[in-house]
Amino acid sequence: MSEPALVTARERPVHRRRSSCRGCGGTELQQFLDLGRQPLANAFLRSEAEFGAEPKYPLTLHLCASCGLVQLIDVIDPEILFGSYLYVTGTSETIAAHNRDYASTVAGLLNLAPADLVVEVASNDGSLLRCFQRLGARVLGVEPASNIAELARGAGVPTETVFFDRLEGARLRESHGPARVVLGNNVLAHVDDPLGFLAGARQLVADDGLVIVEVPSFAEMVERLEYDTVYHEHLSYFSLAALVRLAAGAGLRVVRVDRVPVHGGSLRLYAAPAGSQGEHAAEVLAAVAEEVRAGLTSLDRLRGFAAQVERNRAALVALLKRLRAEGHAIGAYGAPAKGNTLLNFCGVGTELVPYTVDRNPLKVGRYTPGMHLPVLPVEAIRDRRPDFLLILAWNFAEEIMRQQAEFAAGGGRFILPLPMPEVVT
Ligand code: ZN
After folding, report:
1. Nearby residues of 111 by Cβ (< 8 Å), 6 or more positions away
2. Which domain holds residue 334?
3. 28 CA distance to ligand 1 centroid (A)?
4. I want to staple 271 with a disulfide (CB 3.0 to 4.6 A). Which of 4, 66, 235, 252 is the partner?
5. Distance 233 CA to ligand 1 centre (A)
6. How confident is the model over 185-235, as pLDDT tens digits?
7. Given 251, 280, 295, which residue is the final one in a domain?
8. Domain end residue (candidates: 246, 270, 295)
9. What separation in Å is there between the alpha carbon of 20 and the centre of ligand 1?
């Protein structure tokens, strides 16, 4: 594998600011959370020489008064953000187990036959599609990051390197036939034109097929104060209400919604081509009404969320400062994109947390964007012997704490930063 070309401070990303909603075109966008100016959360730095020249962009959340979609308005050129991506799904055990379950659920639901085509958009290294291959299906990956697409092809998963939209959906149907399933896991929130994305899926899917998309749940994010999942790659934050409205706009009707625990709580939406078969399922509409009642489309509720975020920052910084003042050594675990939002928003740098560790070999040896924590291999915990580990990759907290049993047995303790900082032994 050739060395991936990373996003670096030398490449000046093209940045623009939207003035209208990416879901409905409405122009009343109400800001309720300001996370400050932040570097790109996956723009890990190669050397100290790059520290001075990091581009930073506003990171603010807005509610569309017309359709209720929560979104960023600052958009970075996707070629810069995703052209070569460091997140390889195959590296986590939690994700691998999730993929196996997911593939068998979908295969069972649709009674997949060997000739059936399964397309995944943003297929990453092909981990999920390999699960479908093992179940006997024909598969096709669509992955815009060329270095990652190459990994997938190397593993035997046919993969096209394109940005998916309405036209690509139609083109893929021409060249490969209709898809029984079009999957999009954690991609819809990343695209600036989510309506075009769903319309492309509508073009590609067979009449008796399903479009299945998984997005982080905005309801869970608010509930558990997961504000660190806000970063520039992540343009939309879907309440079920906003998502169902968007699907309808693309000619899809929502037949089912599952809540899945991955990535801090996600929504999995199953949609069929709209046509003679009627409306969204009644239980889907009931779930939408429940979210609206809970205030997820209300500016007041979202301003309350923003106030809690401020309290989290104050509490985390106070805890870390106290531990340092008491002479404790602190390290961090994980170098996920969300960790960088947390560190940058809270202003937690190397004076409080001198390093982090990560299992992803593409991140080890680099520095986190903005706060410049060196990323060390996980084995460094044994040498450095910190007293506390701040878990930045909190969605894998259980897996991490299991793997770090030796650290815990030696008296080490973990800090979970959200929803309020908590020390766990
Ligand atoms: Zn809107």
Report:
1. none
2. 300-424
3. 8
4. 252
5. 19
6. 989 999 999 999 999 999 999 999 999 999 999 999 999 999 999 999 999
7. 295
8. 295
9. 8
